[in-house]
Amino acid sequence: KRRIRRRKRRKKRKKKKDERKKQERNKKEEIRAKKERKKKERKKKEKRKKEEEERKKKRKRREEEKEERKKERKRKRKKERKKERKKERKKERKKEE
To answer: Where are the residues of the annotated region Disordered (predicted)?
Structure first.
């Protein structure tokens, strides 16, 4: 009988010990998972930020190119007008002569 009781007690103690180990393992696993989630979230945030920066740069570049084309057109028009005026003056001179 005594042996049986001892065995029961040992079993109970072992069960409690195993339960504690299991809880400890679960706790560690939870902490690890949480860290992993945070890391992933941080990476996502950084990626989003990088993409946003890229979009801004592209937009800026497009705007600058647009402005440059506008200026170029303006220059060409000015040049054309100057040529036209020169031709007109030449014609005027010829008429006067």
So the answer is: 1-97
